[in-house]
Design brief:
Largest sheet: 7 strands, mixed
Strand content: 25-35%
Helix content: 25-40%
Radius of gyration: 21 Å
Structural class: alpha/beta
Number of strands: 15
Distance between the termini: 23 Å
Number of helices: 10
């Protein structure tokens, strides 16, 4: 399709703005949907139409205004986040209208995005465009590179029903783990983790001390932790860690989804256990591994097509559903990724 053949974008679009910083539970009143002119791409930009966007727990933290290693959302301004869309206009010829792309400006129907922030996606790389918004690359990198899962390992994954955890159990199995235990917030979710997502056993937040539950689920201890939660669950994992255990820390949901949505997650760890059991604790962030998305896409594609991997996700329809999607994520209403189709 040539530039002259490309459909003409509309004059106006909708975007979701932060109405006010939340202090406590996130609700619809913290958002406003505004109608604004569709932007025109400037030098070095392309105009992208968003087709599907992701909501994540980190977005709740970005609303607080506390200092973060990433920009915070600003009241009165549109939110942003990972999205897949199609190029509408590319004045400098770096893209072709109709190209499928990943971009960081979700929460709006159209976005003028700097070329260097747009990544072209092969149309047939994954069975559906939405699959490009999985958080599997984080799980894949944390388990394969940071924790280095080995055949026969016992692996504990916290937040196992979330966007990372719902793929992490499947990935751990793919890497040869012998036993996989996950934590989650309800008995219903725990049953689904065991029945559908590769978990051998589960611990349930609120069903008794996490350490006691974990000792029952992993009586011989754990070799690997992929932690998205922190807090009591991290302490419990250390208490049952086997010698030379490897811990990959990728999130702090115990803080992010709490009443204030903060990023700090202080916890007391037993230094004696870390030393005597030679436990390795390593923080992991996808931003430090720019090659991982492509590596994960190839692995994910193979798994989805041969049925050895599934992509758990909830897909809400319409940009007006984006505030609801994030509220429901913070309430633990879904299993897997939470996406919005525009």
């Amino acid at each position: 399709m040539s530039v002259t053949d490309a459909p003409v974008p509309p004059a106006v679009q909708r975007e979701v703005r932060l109405a006010a910083r939340p202090d406590g539970e996130l609700t619809a009143r913290h958002f406003v949907i505004a109608e604004v002119p569709v932007p025109r791409p400037g030098p070095g930009q392309v105009l992208v139409r968003t087709r599907v966007m992701a909501v994540t727990a980190a977005m709740r933290t970005q609303m607080t205004g506390v200092p973060l290693p990433m920009p915070s959302f600003v009241p009165g301004k549109a939110l942003w986040g990972s999205a897949v869309g199609e190029v509408v206009e590319a004045p400098d010829g770096s893209f072709t209208p109709g190209d499928l792309v990943h971009h960081p400006c979700g929460w709006r129907e159209f976005a003028a995005v700097e070329v260097e922030r747009v990544r072209r996606l092969a149309p047939d790389a994954l069975p559906t465009p939405a699959a490009h918004l999985s958080q599997g690359a984080t799980a894949w990198g944390a388990l394969r590179r940071a924790a280095e899962v080995r055949p026969g390992d016992t692996v504990f994954i916290t937040g196992a029903a979330g966007g990372v955890g719902s793929l992490a159990g499947q990935i751990a199995r793919r890497l040869g783990a012998g036993r996989i235990v996950g934590s989650t917030g309800t008995a219903d979710k725990a049953a689904r983790l065991r029945a559908e997502l590769g978990y051998d056993d589960t611990v349930v937040r609120g069903a008794g001390p996490i350490e006691r539950q974990l000792r029952r689920a992993a009586p011989d201890g754990i070799d690997v932790l992929l932690d998205t939660v922190g807090g009591e669950q991290l302490c419990a994992a250390l208490a049952v860690a086997r010698p030379d255990a490897r811990f990959a820390l990728v999130g702090a949901l115990s803080s992010q989804l709490g009443g204030n949505g903060g990023v700090a997650a202080p916890v007391e760890l037993d230094a004696g256990l870390i030393i005597t059991r030679r436990v390795a604790l390593r923080g992991f962030g996808l931003h430090a591994h720019p090659d991982l998305p492509q590596e994960w896409t190839a692995e994910f594609a193979r798994g989805l097509r041969n049925g050895s991997l599934v992509f758990p996700h909830a897909l809400l329809q319409g940009i007006e559903q984006a505030p609801r999607a994030l509220c429901e994520l913070t309430q633990g209403r879904h299993i897997g990724a939470v996406l919005v189709a525009l």
